Amino acid sequence: MGAQKKGGARVSEDPVEQGHQRLQAILLADSFTTKFRPVTLERPKVLLPLVNVPMIDYTLAWLEFAGIEEVFVFCCAHSTQIIDYLDNSEWHSHPNLSVRTIESQKSISAGDALRYIYEQQAETSQIQGDFVLVSGDTVSNMPLADLIQQHRERKKKDEKAIMTMVIKKSKPSPITHQSRLGTDQLFIAVDPKTKQLLHYEEDKIDHARGSVCLDKSLLENNPSVLLYNDMQDCYIDICSPEVLSLFEDNFDYQHLRRHFVKGVLVDDIMGYKIFTHEIHSSYAARMDNFRSYDTVSKDIIQRWTFPYVPDINFSGNRPLKLGRQGIYRASDVIQSRSADVGPSTVIGYGTKIGDGDRILNSVIGNGCSIGSNVVIEGSYIWNNVVIEDGCKIRNAIVCDGVKIRAGAVLQPGVVLSFNVVVGRDFVVPAYSKVSLLQQPTKEDSDEELECVDTSSGAADLLSGLNLEMEPRASELGPDGAGYIWEVCEGAHDEEWKHSVAPIPMDKVAEIVQAMEDDDDREDESFVPTSGELRSDADSINTDMNDPCDDYGYFEKEVEGTFLRAVEEGIVVDLAILEVNSLRLSYNMESADCAGAAFFSMMKLAVDTPHSSADELYKNAVSIIAKWKRLLGFYVKKTDEQIEVIMKFEEMCQETARELGPLFAKILHYMYEIDVLQEDAILRWAEEKAGADEADRVYLQQCEAFIQWLKEASEEEDEDEDEDEVGEEEEVKKP
């Protein structure tokens, strides 16, 4: 059963002008990349399980929910597997959504796919008008009705408006310059009034200098341009039929963005235009690599993708029961009483969990058997996997049918493809990709070449790929089976950047050190998150680009970094490194970092749901306790601690009804856990004592606490004086 539709989801057309036009979508069921190898050599990416549901089901369920009536699924690699799956799923006879497949074995890029559809269009006229273009690895809950209507109305006024791209804010990491999905930082320019896309860049940003090059002609016909480097391209497009014909006319268009979008932007002859649509509260993400697979999985578990979550029935999936701490569990799971299943974990149907197991932040598929004393953290165990006693698995992906023998260890970033066997006590090195298929002798030079059809068996592959097993000893121990693929030359950085494992601390330290050692880096070269460039101005104007307000912008960046650390479970040490990189970029002091970090913590406490002052206090205490080391790193000196108190006082003044009454209580708590020392608190009190009465509200609230600190300090001084006198008397004794 599909998710229940909201009223008014369908887009209506003027019946007098053209009658009812079916809402259609083209779904590309092939990513045309190799980023999910070796897994996708045996199964198409869109059929890989995402929190125990095939990726394509999320996309189809969303399209049906959004009012799309007909979807054309384009199949290339593993086309037989995809067609068979759809034919045997509820989509085959869905009452609200017609799903039709288009098959082409020769297409090796998105451009080829759209050209093939255009050729078929000449014979069948399948595409009746505007359509939604998405890939089958997209998860979203955004409404489409209004967006389609806006696109059509714009097209009526301007026949050159052929496409609308969906974008969403996503702050990139200041260290890796990647989004939380593991994609490269995107830089776009749009018209502030019309939202027309004017510039699109994702591979020519000079991160060392914090700059990008813009053509001067950009401002010739645009009096002002809005610049962004904190946007995520959702790869959801509303297209007019002209898009298909443009691919037919330009055979060099292969990639949707790198070739088509950039080609349209620089083509002055045809004059076609692309517009952007920013979403705010809705969710939209595409799984481009293993890191984005990990991120989207966590978002699903944390219910950002509602109603496409594990405890709700959509696309024929079997819903799980949601328990405390975000634990989803199937009704027939057999779990030992001594096993510890921690927060944000999913356990599928027919799975058995043994004695003393510890499973945290992980997804376990259907029909799995897990022995005793097994540790699984931050990992994805697919279906029918056997894990024997004493194994340790951290931040790994384990595909269907894998067997991990007793005592084996999977280090962070490991990917085990289908039916691999890891030998007893064998340690699989970090970031290893393991398969029963031998690694191709020659890697495809073009990233768009993964048109491998293994529908009829793992060995039935394209000619030129030597993937058959050789009769040699297993690389996973004497009782194991599988090959460890070598990392391609020049791709070592891609392994940790695109892995499900957290970014290694040594890599982060290397990047930060390089930033510190870069003598050519200038403070003013930092590219602001967004801003408006006017034709009569020499610089970018932003809400926070005033030199006097650098701290305001810095504070926002620290807040974004902190929230990302909370959402993604980033360790404190990595969060400190990211804040340090921001500190370098903005030339800030430790006190500035302390104030910004504390602001982020208190803002999260206020934003976390609460119904009373006591609950807000518990929120604040919980957050401060968990992130004490982050705050403590920047409050080693008295002045830095005073900055935190002043920031807290400022926040209480702004949210007097909520934080105000808790000032003394939270201040006392931070003293108890040694975040703040008595010297800092007493110095702040002394400075406040001479202020106007209106500015002494929170000092008065702390009067009893301050008095207690003073008395304790005086007693300590007296004890020290007595000790000194005693020492002097001992010296005078004969």
Automatic annotation (TrEMBL):
Segments of this protein annotated with the region Disordered: 518-541, 710-734
Acidic residues: bias regions: 713-734
UniProt keyword terms in alphabetical order: Cytoplasm, Initiation factor, Protein biosynthesis
Entry GO MF terms: guanyl-nucleotide exchange factor activity; translation initiation factor activity; translation initiation factor binding
Domain of life (superkingdom): Eukaryota
Signal peptide region: none
A Pfam family annotated for this UniProt entry: LbH_EIF2B
Record CDD domains: eIF-2B_epsilon_N, LbH_eIF2B_epsilon, W2_eIF2B_epsilon
Localization, UniProt: Cytoplasm, Cytosol
Cross-referenced InterPro entries: ARM-type_fold, eIF-2B_epsilon_N, eIF2B_epsilon, LbH_EIF2B3/5, NTP_transferase_dom, Nucleotide-diphossugar_trans, Trimer_LpxA-like_sf, W2_domain
Domain W2, residue spans: 548-719
GO cellular component: cytosol; eukaryotic translation initiation factor 2B complex
Family assignment from sequence similarity: Belongs to the eIF-2B gamma/epsilon subunits family.
Subunit details: Component of the translation initiation factor 2B (eIF2B) complex which is a heterodecamer of two sets of five different subunits: alpha, beta, gamma, delta and epsilon. Subunits alpha, beta and delta comprise a regulatory subcomplex and subunits epsilon and gamma comprise a catalytic subcomplex. Within the complex, the hexameric regulatory complex resides at the center, with the two heterodimeric catalytic subcomplexes bound on opposite sides.
Protein name: Translation initiation factor eIF2B subunit epsilon
Organism annotation: Noccaea caerulescens (Alpine penny-cress)
